Amino acid sequence: MSSRRTVRRLTVVTGSLVTASFSAVMILPFTAVADDQGPGSGKGGKAVDQAPDGVRLTTTLPERISVDNSSQKTAITATVKNEGTKDSDDISLLVVGFDGLRIKGVQGCAAIAQKDLPAGSNSAFTCSVGALGAGRSKSYAVDATFDLGGTGKICLPVQSADGKKTFWQQGPVPFGTTNPSPNAPATPLLLGTDNKPVGPSGDQLPKTGAGSAVLPLGAAGAALIAAGAAGAWWSRRRPRQQS
């Protein structure tokens, strides 16, 4: 991409149409696709600008993703499809993260600069799809993190190459669960589900087992030891000060 074409127009629906420009600043290497994500779904998708005759562009996201409870890492497959009868012109797919879902990398795509992110988003990447043949699709492996202490949404706009038209937009649609699994290695999240935070205060995973009992007692013991040491130090200091 030449320096003259690094800035385009991006439209993302967050309740109303929000427009922001962006510049592509980094190309990330290939990322891994998560296993067992289930069938793809176009939930939360809608047509925006009219596509050329014979072209019908859509996207799908996995029905289910899995978040590692210790690292908060997850992987998502984002797919763009042409379900029409004619080939499309050159198009772009954007992958945008909101709230607790942060996009860390997308296979073969460019990061959008922080200052150019759509309003309300925390991360975004742009993928140059090119012309997509009738009945064809293209998938991208997305690396992300999900904060289980809050909610998280993802958005997939499909735009013309110049960014002036948005033919389709999926989301922002949430991933989440109403039954967190903080003590398991991973928590499964379902597309279109508002997340129920896992911690009592919604900001951390609860601890169970021996560790949860030992840590508070250890902290209390350390405090008592510190207090005792301070008292001994003070008792030694007082005679010296009086003399």
Describe the structure.
With 243 residues, this protein is mainly beta. The strands form 2 sheets. Strands 1, 2, 4, 6, 8, 10, 11, 13, 14 and 15 form a 10-stranded antiparallel sheet that branches. Strands 3-5-7-12-9 form a 5-stranded antiparallel sheet, with no helix packed on it. The longest helix is centred in the C-terminal third of the chain and has 33 residues. It is elongated and about 50 Å long. The N terminus and C terminus are likely disordered.
Mean pLDDT: 76
Given the C-alpha coordinates, what overall shape results?
A: elongated
Q: Specify the number of helices.
A: 1
Q: Cα distance, first to last residue?
A: 80 Å
Note the run of SSEs as H and E.
Answer: EEEEEEEEEEEEEEEH
Radius of gyration, CA atoms, in whole angstroms: 25 Å
Largest sheet: 10 strands, antiparallel
Structural class call reads mainly beta
Number of strands: 15
Task: Give the low-pLDDT segments.
Answer: 1-36, 201-243
Estimate the strand proportion: over 45%
Helix content, binned percent = 10-25%
